[in-house]
Amino acid sequence: MSIDYIIGDETSGILRTHAEKAERDDRPAAESLEALRKNGIFALRTPRKYGGAWADTETVARRLTDLGRACPSTAWIAGACVTAKNIAVRCFPDSLIPEFWADPDAIVCGMGVPGARGESGPEGVRVSGRWPNVSGCEDAAWAVLALMVDGRFSFALIPVTDLAVERTWHMAGMRGTGSHTLVAEGTMVPAERIAAADPFHVGDLLLYSVTVLGPVVGAARGALDAINAMFASDRKPFMSSYSRMAESPGARHWLAEATHLVNRAENTMLAIAHAADSPDLTEAESPRLHMDLADAARDCRAAVERMLDLHGASGFNTANVLQRFWRDVSVGSRHPHLNPYLAVERFGSTLVTPR
Length: 355
Prior knowledge:
Largest sheet: 8 strands, mixed
Number of helices: 10
Radius of gyration: 21 Å
Mean pLDDT: 95
CATH class of the largest domain: Mainly Alpha
Strand content: 5-15%
CATH architecture of the largest domain: Up-down Bundle
Oligomer: single chain
Number of strands: 8
């Protein structure tokens, strides 16, 4: 299923056209965000009662992959919005916060690592602290932020206008995500917008991982689009007697391997997404599924490396889209949700019991 079928020729074109601008500005392009808003992307995890889709995990995975094929950074913002809205639903009785859901297409950012502390008082909770790496914070209406309140791990719903933004995101890849730092300096938050957090269900944890992996798989697909276009052109392997890339058995072999790796990564992700929504899912399955997630991320990296071998050094020209996909995959696939050595550690602990 192609990106044009899912989000339309116009939308995919807008994302591709403004991908370089997003990277240059260290934040998503306004034109791209508006295109996603019109397509209902930011309402994927808005409850239906508030005009959203409340899409299942497999649908989220497919949509983020298709977006990432055009602009991984913008897809990442959409994934962060899914995660933040899901946490808001799980932690808060939404009947108490109708203002949070007033706009079903609002961009919501968040951070699950407690970067602040709250002091309870008669007027609410006074919050002070810093949350780094909050993707999309400059364009979000609300932030769903972890903090410690009275010794309890909690989440707060805070309008971004009540916070300061420090532009600290200067990375080699996923630059357009605008994952800057949010700062609260004695911000007063109404008590009903603070909730102690219970442990997340394994299905929710898998959803959060899929929102990270989807843009990475999409980036690998975008890179593969560039390589397939190269094979369809008149380009030939440099310093060879071949007149076209497709004449080289070695090039065809490398293309087959890269395509297989991308397909395997996507199929693995979709299988995990399907499992995340299963009512029969248990905590015991979590280590194996997270191992699969990490493997899918590594498949994306390996696939793009083969593509760069096919393209040669010119693939690293800053005007070549392939190098941007390479950097986005390299950074995005190393998110903590996709950490390979911790996934191996957790899975291994289920196989043997230390003496």
